[in-house]
Amino acid sequence: MKSGTLKTHSDEDFRRVTGVKRGTFAKMAEILATARIEKRKRRGRKPKLSLEEMLLATLEYLRECRTCARIAASYGTDESNMYRAIRWLEDVLAKEERRLFAVREKSPAERRHGLRGNLRGRDGNAYRASKKNSAGTIRARRSGTP
């Protein structure tokens, strides 16, 4: 699928087709643009596909489990070039995962009281991680166990 056709889709259709929201897609494209500048400092041939098309191909590869040969055929490029592009995008996005998805650190209260993320019960109170305590259990005798 070409990136030009996705511009006319609504936000909901865009997410259904690509698997990511339009804002996340824009962040990914921005990260890839800066990484491509670093990569192209060494010179080299201009790629046949744009960044958006490479990103769409990578999302198809990851989401739909299509082979590189089929994706390459649909984009009109060679399988080995598509494989290299997908591999490069995965590596770049994996390095920038924190910036892309804004992973939240635990607050001091969560660390101090052992709260697990945002797990809440029906009453609205957060669950606490239970500590292991062997005082409440009764041990069986070794000779009595099979």
SSE order and pairing:
Elements: H1 3-6, H2 11-18, H3 22-39, H4 51-64, H5 68-75, H6 79-95, H7 97-101, H8 108-113, E1 115-120, E2 126-128
Antiparallel strand pairs: 1-2
Helix pairs in contact: 4-5, 4-6, 5-6
Characterization of the model:
The structure is a single chain. The chain is mainly α. The chain has a domain at 3-101. Helix content is 55%, strand content 6%. The chain is built from 8 helices and 2 strands. It has a two-stranded antiparallel sheet. The chain starts with a helix and ends in an 18-residue tail after the last strand. The model has no long low-confidence stretch (mean pLDDT 78).
Output the radius of gyration.
24 Å
- Count of distinct strands: 2
Give the helix proportion (percent range).
40-55%
CA-based shape: elongated
Poorly predicted sequence stretches spanning 5 or more consecutive residues: none
Look at the helices and sheets and give the structural class.
mainly alpha
State the distance separating the first and last CA atoms.
62 Å
Query: Helical region count?
Result: 8
**If strands are numbered along the chain, what order do they take across the biggest sheet?**
1-2
The residue-averaged pLDDT reads: 78
**How much beta, percentage-wise?**
5-15%
Report the order of strands and helices.
Answer: HHHHHHHHEE
Characterize the main sheet: 2 strands, antiparallel
Q: Can I get a quick summary?
A:
With about 150 residues, the chain is mainly α. About 55% of the residues lie in helices and about 5% in strands.
